[in-house]
Design goal:
Distance between the termini: 38 Å
Helix content: 10-25%
Number of helices: 2
Number of domains: 1
Radius of gyration: 15 Å
CATH topology: Thiol Ester Dehydrase, Chain A
CATH architecture: Roll
Shape: globular
Structural class: mainly beta
Strand order of the largest sheet: 1-2-4-5-6-3
Largest sheet: 6 strands, antiparallel
Length: 157
């Protein structure tokens, strides 16, 4: 049985966009193929909670080789999308902290394959958000099913 969601999605309009990709770029330096967030749907910076999304398409750069004839969205890109969301959350909570890079990943479990086209919702909850280290629990959902979960540590660089 999957663990409970990090926060309740009831009452959140999943079609709403509160932070655009262009606005994410003001905080996150990733560009081109490595931009893994398409938008932010909801946030509560005071409670250190955020909900973003990634639209996954079958014509993306990774699809041709992972897996030929049956593209599967790579788990490393799921984690990268979650790390970018956690980094965004950390910068907003800490009011402009410098770039936050990967410090570690723990307790990651992949539960389902993600086949394009798909919309993956990414949840992040700050566990420890401090100037020297950021730890977030993260989860990914596709079609109301938990596809991955884990914990990401970020460090200012």
């Amino acid at each position: 049985m999957p663990p409970p969601l990090l926060f309740d999605l009831t009452g959140i309009n999943l079609d709403q966009l509160v932070i655009t990709k262009d606005q994410i770029r003001q905080d996150n330096p990733q560009r081109y193929e490595f931009e893994q967030l398409d938008g932010i749907i909801w946030h509560d910076f005071e409670k250190q909670l955020i909900l973003g999304f990634r639209d996954i398409q079958s014509d993306e750069w990774w699809a041709r080789g992972h897996i030929p004839g049956r593209p599967l969205f790579p788990g490393v890109l799921m984690i990268e999308a979650a790390a970018q969301l956690a980094s965004f959350l950390g910068r907003r909570v800490l009011a402009g902290q410098r770039f936050i890079g990967f410090g570690g990943i723990d307790k990651v479990k992949f539960r389902e394959s993600v086949v394009p086209p798909a919309k993956m919702y990414i949840l992040a909850k700050g566990v420890e958000v401090r100037p020297r280290r950021i730890i977030c629990d993260v989860q990914g959902l596709v079609n109301d099913r938990l596809v991955f979960g884990g914990q990401i540590t970020g460090v200012p660089m």
